[in-house]
Structure formats: C-alpha cells, structure tokens
Write a structure and sequence with these properties.
The protein has 154 residues and is mainly α. The protein contains six helices and two strands; from the N terminus they run βαααβααα. It has a two-stranded antiparallel ribbon.
C-alpha cells in the first residue's frame, strides 16, 4: 500500500510549474526558454519516475508550507498525480523537441497545453492528468464489461 499525500502539495507544484511554463512562453524562442523547459522536464521526470513525494516541490511543501497551514490536510493516493507528472513530461518533451528542432510553433503549443493543465490544477484544483488516470483505470478495470461503461447485454 502506498503512502497517502497531502492533496495541497500537488496544487503548489502546479502553481510553480505554471510560473515556469508561462516564463518559457514569454521568453521563447531563446536559449533561456529551452534551458528552463529542460529543467521543468527533469522535474516532471522525477515526479513520474520516483513519485510526487520525492520531488523538490514536495520537499518545499512538507518543510516550509504545510507546517504553516492551519487547515487539516485532505489525503489522497499519489498514483493519479504521479501519472499527471508523466503526462506533463510527455508535453514538456514534445515542447523541448519543437524548440530544439526549430519547430517553434510545436514547442509553444505543447508548452501552452501543459500550462493550461497546470493552471487548472493550481487555481481550481482540477488535475487533468489525474482525471485521465482515473478514466483509464475505469476503462481498463477487470471487473467486466459494466466497468468499462457497457452493459452486460451489449
């Protein structure tokens, strides 16, 4: 069984990610934007491969932010945010490939899509990657045809 995480941690991560990605969009195409995007891709990779509990953002949240919050945390499974980090990594790698290859439009569009997802999580606590994870789990459930949204008579 995995350890639960404070649901506010990924929201802080999304806010920081949104600032980074907005900065990439504001400064692209440039060497600075490419390096910043590569750093963000590395952060996504840490979250996707090692888990969201092991990211630098998580450490900042646990040590500096959470002790100052008064409301009790809502705990959640780390699997959906970890999957969301994988989705973010995919978009960041596509964006990075676009910027590095000179297909700037591809880089900007992929960065913009990742920024949109980060803003939705940061502002509204709506994690697109998490929802995608849950949808995939529902569709691939081994509970039979009803779990995949089909009736047993179809």
């Amino acid at each position: 069984m995995t350890t639960q995480i404070d649901s506010r941690g990924p929201q802080l991560n999304a806010a920081v990610t949104a600032v980074v990605l907005a900065t990439v969009l504001a400064t692209a195409p440039s060497f600075f934007a490419t390096i910043l995007l590569a750093v963000q891709a590395a952060l996504f990779a840490i979250g996707a491969l090692l888990g969201v509990q092991r990211t630098p953002h998580s450490w900042v949240f646990r040590t500096l932010v959470r002790p100052r919050l008064t409301k009790a945390p809502e705990w959640e499974d780390p699997a959906p945010p970890r999957f969301a980090q994988s989705v973010g990594l995919g978009f960041a790698l596509v964006a990075l490939a676009g910027l590095l290859s000179g297909v700037t439009v591809l880089g900007l569009v992929a960065t913009g899509l990742a920024l949109t997802a980060a803003l939705l999580n940061a502002v509204f606590r709506f994690c697109l990657g998490c929802e995608l994870y849950l949808l995939i789990r529902r569709i691939t459930s081994t509970s039979g045809p009803v779990a995949a949204g089909r009736s047993a008579t179809n």
